[in-house]
Every structure is written in structure tokens, then in C-alpha cells.
């Protein structure tokens, strides 16, 4: 490809990337009803704490090293996150019965409630986002989003 064609292609990709970023920022901005419907308004959560709640909701209990790999974050950082979440009564941690060196983390009842409510709200928002699309458009969108998510 000639130098000018490469430059134009790069410029077009950059423009498209800016458009994608703007669309994603709008799509990922939490709607007001999600904020108003916060399941436990007195509990503040960081983005990583929310991610931990969702990981534990998907996988059940996890050992600390697996949780660190899934975030990804150093084990020392995950330990501090779990310390804060344990203080908020969102998670419980225990030593493995097979190997006392292994620490297992799971959602506490309060954490499970928060996870379930957040998940329900997110699903409602996702349904509203898909409503204006035809079935074919939904399939294409989901296929493309799946392809993008596998690249991350």
C-alpha cells in the first residue's frame, strides 16, 4: 500500500476508534436508575470491588491467587480489596480444609444481595438497549461484541 493510502487508513481507524470510544463511554455510563436503585446505598464500592462481586457471583468461591489472576492484580492488592470488602460484610474468607496455606473467598449474604440486584439492573438496561434493534441486528451486534471481547 502506498504511503498516503496507509496514512489515510491509519487516520480512518483512529477516527473510528474515537467514535467507538465515545459510544462505549455512553453505553457504559450507568443510567440514573441504577444509581438510584443501589441495593445498599450506605455501602460505597470501588470498580474493583464491584468486579470481585461479579467474579464471585459467576464462579462461587475462589482462592485468592485465582482472584488475583482474574482481576488482574497483585496478590497484595487483592488482599487489601478483600480486607475492605470483609469489613463491609460483602465477602467471607476462610482457610482451605485441605491446605491451610490456601485462602478461599466467597460472597457473604450482603454481597450476594448486592450482586443479584446489580445484575438484575444491568440485564434490564441491556434489554432496553437491544429493543430498538431487529433480531438480525442483535445477532450481528452480539457476534461483533463477542469478537471484540475476545481480543481484550
TrEMBL record:
- Which GO molecular-function terms appear in the entry? DNA binding; DNA-binding transcription factor activity
Keywords on this record?
A: DNA-binding, Transcription, Transcription regulation
Carries keyword Plastid? Answer: no
Tell me which residues make up the HTH marR-type domain. 13-150
Q: Which PROSITE patterns match?
A: HTH_MARR_2
Report whether Transcription shows up as a keyword of the record: yes
What protein am I looking at?
Answer: MarR family transcriptional regulator
Amino acid at each position: 500500500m502506498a504511503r498516503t493510502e496507509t496514512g489515510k487508513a491509519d487516520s480512518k481507524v483512529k477516527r473510528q476508534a474515537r467514535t467507538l470510544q465515545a459510544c462505549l463511554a455512553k453505553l457504559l455510563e450507568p443510567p440514573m436508575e441504577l444509581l438510584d436503585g443501589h441495593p445498599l446505598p450506605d455501602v460505597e464500592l470501588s470498580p474493583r470491588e464491584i468486579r470481585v462481586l461479579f467474579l464471585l457471583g459467576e464462579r462461587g468461591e475462589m482462592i485468592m491467587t485465582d482472584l488475583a489472576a482474574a482481576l488482574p492484580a497483585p496478590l497484595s492488592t487483592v488482599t487489601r480489596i478483600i480486607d475492605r470488602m470483609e469489613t463491609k460484610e460483602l465477602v467471607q474468607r476462610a482457610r482451605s480444609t485441605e491446605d491451610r496455606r490456601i485462602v478461599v473467598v466467597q460472597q457473604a449474604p450482603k454481597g450476594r444481595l448486592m450482586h443479584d440486584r446489580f445484575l438484575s439492573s444491568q440485564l434490564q438496561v441491556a434489554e432496553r438497549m437491544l429493543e430498538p434493534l431487529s433480531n438480525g441486528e442483535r445477532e450481528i451486534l452480539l457476534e461483533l461484541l463477542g469478537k471484540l471481547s475476545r481480543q481484550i
